[in-house]
Automatic annotation (TrEMBL):
A GO cellular component annotation in the UniProt record: ribosome
Record keywords: Ribonucleoprotein, Ribosomal protein
The gene coding this protein: rpmG
Similarity field: Belongs to the bacterial ribosomal protein bL33 family.
Protein name (record): Large ribosomal subunit protein bL33
Provenance organism: Roseibium aestuarii
Pfam families: Ribosomal_L33 (PF00471)
UniProt-listed PROSITE patterns: RIBOSOMAL_L33 (PS00582)
InterPro entries linked to this entry: Ribosomal_bL33 (IPR001705), Ribosomal_bL33_CS (IPR018264), Ribosomal_bL33_sf (IPR038584), Ribosomal_zn-bd (IPR011332)
């Protein structure tokens, strides 16, 4: 069976609040780790979110 093209990932806040977003990414086109600036409601500001595995 073929490997799925889209995988679920967890975007974890770098502000060490423990807040995270769950999103999908295409693992064939985006081979590097994903990072985005998004809003962290615990820190009450926009911070960098980095990709981690869903356990």
């Amino acid at each position: 069976m073929a490997k799925a093209t889209t995988i679920k990932i967890k975007l974890l806040s770098t502000a060490d609040t423990g807040y995270f977003y769950v999103t999908k990414k295409n693992s064939r086109t985006m081979t590097e780790k994903m990072s985005m600036r998004k809003y962290d409601p615990v820190a009450k500001k926009h911070v960098e979110f980095k990709e981690t595995k869903i356990k």
